[in-house]
Amino acid sequence: MPDIKMVNPNALGKPLGQYSNIARVKASEFIFIAGQVSVDKGGNIVGADDFDAQCVQTFANIGTALKSCGAGWSNVAQFTTYLVHSQDIPAFMKFRLREFPRMFGSGSYPPNTLLMIDRLVKEQLLIEVQAVAAV
Length: 135
Prior knowledge:
The chain is an alpha+beta fold. It has a single domain (3-134), classed as CATH 3.30.1330.40. Helix content is 24%, strand content 28%. The chain is built from two helices and six strands, in the order E-E-E-H-E-H-E-E. It has a four-stranded mixed β-sheet. Strands 1-2 form a two-stranded antiparallel ribbon. Helix 2 links the parallel strand 4 and strand 5 (112-116). The protein starts with a strand and ends with a strand. The mean pLDDT is 96.
């Protein structure tokens, strides 16, 4: 089992959302999951005009990738999130407030870097999330 400790030093201040400032990881193997978007197994876009539906599918895809490697949410050490519209930040925070307590039962959330970009591989896509996990 990996030893993953989420750390929020007082000197850095409290995180602005559901993430930690630092993940200290001791592991025998790392899993690098390419950015996942809101597409189903057949490659069809899920929730073309629905940001929350795209979040649900994107994180479901990450969950599937983790499971395929014998890992789960507790193995995640870091996320990088790409949003097309800065106006979706509140909806992203709302999604995390709703879903992360279920996904990360410890109440400790992995570090997350949030970036705004011009667009994703398909114009209808609104979010992409990359993950690093440890086993």
